[in-house]
Amino acid sequence: MKIHFNGAARTVTGSKHLLETDDGLKILLDCGMFQGGESEGGRENRHFDFEPGEIDLLILSHAHIDHSGLIPKLVKDGFKGPIYCTEPTLALCEIMLPDSAHIQMSDYRFSEKKGLLSQANEPLYDIDDVLAALDLFQTVNYNEWHHLHDDVALMFTFVGHIIGSGCVNLRVKEGRKTHKIAYTGDIGRKTHRIIKGWEPFPQAEIIITESTYGDRLHGDIATNEARLREIVHQTCVVNKGKLIIPAFSLGRTQEIVHALDKMEGEGLLPAVKVFVDSPLSTSATEIVKSFPQYYNKAIKKYMERDSQPFGFSNLHYIRDVKYSKLLNNLEEPCIIISASGMIEAGRIMHHVANNIEDERNTLLIVGYCEPSTLGGRLRNGAKEIRIYGRDYKVKAAVEVLDAYSAHGDYEEMIEYLSCQEPHLIRKIFLVHGRYETQTTYRTHLMEAGFHHIEIPDQGDVVEVS
Ligand SMILES: [Zn+2]
């Protein structure tokens, strides 16, 4: 069997890993979009390093765009096979993929208006391609083996990253041999604030696993919640400013809203308005609310006291753009949570532009940002930024709270992998991480007793027979 690493190899976005058996069966694991800087809309998203029409089936680990965002393009370019995922992942893709098509079309029209059209602005797909792709989705339950094909069985196990996310466990027959493969997708925190945590997965011989925070420790949740309270107090009460929080629509937004909901319930949230200013974040929250069977015990217990864990009196969800624009003129202190999380597109761009030059305000970054993105530059201490062709001085405070990340740190990822017997593993491939991070993570893994660890590069093809 060969594994082709066609995305998220020595980088964090664009997840695409292709398994090819000697018998010619081709299974694609995820079909994500590259994000950040020049790559978005650029060459990497316009060409697949394989023939889409030759792929037999696609398995999707979870709905984040860097794992799912090129599925409509794959279908547009000739893929006709089934796409397997969990039920919440399909529900989320039904809002996220149309949103992705919509953003691309809006960017295209904006560039057209400004006379800045180039091939890089052309949408990768449109809503018809999205609908054709959604027709191919088939959902499967967690913790059950499903025979997808004569030679392939699949089981999703809980990985605790976002609702619907799963570790992809595969049994793939090749001649007389059966390969035991696990692709972890993204690994969540040990204690997720909303959904069930990770569970052990069956012993695998080949493991493809993420490494986003392979060189970091996040710190404990209680400390970070205290820090969040301090930041809210300092910004909204002492400075009388605005707290701007860029957050992924899916996962991070619900976690932050729930943290604020808890603060409100405990009487620790100042009486300021809180806005979730994003139609996608609003819809994603509705979907998270519709799958309470995947909540963890802590939030179920919380809901015995407060049936609305993502809603309190001062919280407003904004879909309509005209209400979003009204926030620009709001004089009073407030909290605005908006997407995208890496500050690359969407309404957050306007909120950063409107608020970054006022020292009363705070920009709070709560998750991973590719260094080339605006979020990444702010995170790394940029003093001046450019948004839509205009320069801005960074006068607002910039704070970072990584504990709100949906990804485990290196100790958590190793703990997740500790259900495996290292001597039974033939190969571990590290993906979804920056190369310097991955080399550090490999050292940590070796100290924990794991061996045969490789860090494939983009385009590498590895034989694993
Ligand atoms: Zn993810």
TrEMBL record:
Domain Beta-Casp: 253-378
SUPFAM superfamilies cross-referenced by the UniProt entry: Metallo-hydrolase/oxidoreductase
Xref: InterPro entries: Beta_Casp, MBL, Metallo-B-lactamas, RibonucZ/Hydroxyglut_hydro, RMMBL
Metallo-beta-lactamase domain segment(s): 13-242
GO molecular function: hydrolase activity; RNA endonuclease activity
CDD domains per record: TTHA0252-CPSF-like_MBL-fold (cd16295)
Keyword entries, A-Z: Hydrolase
Protein name: MBL fold metallo-hydrolase
Organism name: Cryomorpha ignava
